[in-house]
Every structure is written in structure tokens, then in C-alpha cells.
Design a protein that fits this description.
Layout (H helix, E strand, L loop, with lengths): L1 H12 L2 H20 L3 H30 L1 H8 L5 H30 L6 H30 L3 H29 L6 H9 L2 H12 L7 H11 L2 H28 L3
Helix pairs in contact: 1-5, 2-3, 2-5, 3-5, 3-6, 3-7, 3-9, 5-6, 5-11, 6-7, 6-9, 6-11, 9-11
Length: 260
């Protein structure tokens, strides 16, 4: 698997899309830090971009990479190599290459401005870690879509629908349900609904780390009570880790059953 992982990572890091992805975060982060000296505001601005852009790029780039490397995958399948090794190597190569571009693109401006000290260091690492976890989660979902759908058009369409659901539609349905059932106690429902969406869970974790949950009103107080503690933060990270592992486990099962 290490050879396949090494080849996939090297091949993707040479792609112009990886450089464009890195350059965007490099220029955007550097511009925000240059215009604003408040690191908390910069982290919030980056959070809004990362929570939308990272899942989108990971999903679309993952589906594109799967379909473009299909012939190479079939060649590997003809060799005495386990299917799990092939798909895990390609998936990890994709997720690692995108994560490297994200970390370097955001990390260089923060290091260059010399503002990674004290509590700002933890805010920065919370932002980066959530971006990396979202990249791994949606890269896995993208590979799963490619495995389940032979038709490229259908695969790309499902990838867009998946991203739209988690990034936009889910929040709308969540808010609508809160309005319709506002007369009932919704603390447990709010927590459960947040856990079921990795993007929302990452957003809440970053906001709680920045200690601005009061801006979220009563809902923010609920999240602060249950997720603001060390135990709650640990459970949130565990949930994101489970979100990361679920697509990988499903990819393994789908690869075993798929007839190439």
C-alpha cells in the first residue's frame, strides 16, 4: 500500500489543481492577516471558507481523480495486489495531498506574520485539524460515489448533491424543524442533528474554541454546556474520526463486492 500511496500522493501533488488550491489559501490567508491584525477575526473568516470549500474540493476532486485513474486501477487489479491495498492507497494519497496543500497554504502566512503564540496557536490548530478531517471525510465519500456509479455524469451529479445537502440543505431543514417544533424541548435534538453533519460539527467546535458561542443565543448556550468541556470536545473529535472511518470501511466493502 505504501508504494501506491507514494505514487498517488506524488502524482496529485504535481497536479496544477493542487497548486491552485494551495495558492488560493496562501493568498487569502495572507490578505486577511495583512488587512486585519485580529487573529480571531481571521480564523472566523477562514472558517467560513474552509467549511464550504474543503468539502467541495475534496468531493469534486475525489470523484474526478477516481474516474480519471480508472484504467490505472484496472491495471493494478490485474496484479496480485489486494483490492483494499489499492483503494486505500489511492484514497489516502488524495486526502493527504489536499491536506498538505491546505496546511501549507494557511500555515505559511501565520508563521510568516509570527502570530502563532498563546491561545491563538490552539485556535489555529483547531481550524487546521477540522479542515483536514473534512478533507478526509469528503474524499472518502467521493471515492465511495465513484465505486458505486459507473456513469461519470451520474457520479459527478451525486457528488454535487452530496455537497449541497451537507453544506446548504441540511442547515435549512435543521432550522425549519427548530421553528416548527419550537414549543418542545429541542436540546437533545439539536445536539444529535449537529453530530449527524460533519460540517456543522466542525463549525460548532471552532466557535466554541474561539469562545464566541454567546453570539449563537440559546442554542450556543446548549452547545457550550455539552460540547464546551474537555469531554465534549473529545467526543466531538471522536465523532469526526468516526465520520472519517465510516467511508473508508464502506469503500473496503464496496471494493470487495464490485465486479470490474
Amino acid at each position: 500500500m505504501l508504494k501506491i500511496l507514494k505514487y498517488s500522493t506524488y502524482d496529485l501533488l504535481r497536479s496544477r489543481w493542487a497548486y491552485l488550491y494551495l495558492a488560493f489559501f496562501l493568498l487569502f490567508s495572507g490578505g486577511l492577516l495583512y488587512l486585519s491584525g485580529d487573529v480571531s477575526k481571521v480564523v472566523i473568516s477562514l472558517m467560513n471558507v474552509i467549511l464550504i470549500l474543503c468539502p467541495l474540493i475534496a468531493t469534486m476532486f475525489g470523484v474526478m481523480y477516481y474516474y480519471n485513474s480508472r484504467e490505472f486501477t484496472e491495471l493494478l487489479l490485474a496484479q496480485p495486489i489486494r483490492r483494499r491495498t489499492i483503494f486505500w492507497g489511492q484514497y489516502l494519497g488524495l486526502a493527504i495531498s489536499l491536506s498538505v496543500s491546505l496546511v501549507i497554504g494557511i500555515g505559511i502566512p501565520f508563521v510568516a506574520y509570527g502570530i502563532l503564540h498563546g491561545p491563538e496557536t490552539w485556535n489555529f490548530f483547531t481550524l487546521i485539524s477540522n479542515g483536514v478531517l473534512l478533507t478526509f471525510i469528503f474524499s472518502g465519500l467521493a471515492f465511495l460515489i465513484g465505486l458505486k456509479n459507473e456513469n461519470k455524469i451520474r457520479g459527478f451529479g451525486l457528488a454535487i448533491v452530496l455537497w449541497l445537502f451537507f453544506a446548504v440543505v441540511y442547515d435549512g431543514l435543521f432550522l425549519l424543524s427548530l421553528i416548527l417544533f419550537k414549543e418542545y424541548p429541542l436540546e437533545g435534538f439539536s445536539l444529535a442533528a449537529t453530530v449527524l453533519n460533519p460540517i456543522d460539527l466542525s463549525r460548532i467546535m471552532i466557535l466554541l474554541k474561539l469562545d464566541i458561542s454567546a453570539l449563537m443565543g440559546y442554542t450556543g448556550a446548549v452547545f457550550q454546556k455539552f460540547l464546551g468541556t474537555a469531554l465534549g470536545m473529545g467526543l466531538s473529535l471522536l465523532t469526526l474520526a468516526l465520520w472519517t472511518g465510516l467511508p473508508v470501511w464502506t469503500i473496503q466493502r464496496a471494493a470487495k463486492q464490485k465486479d470490474f
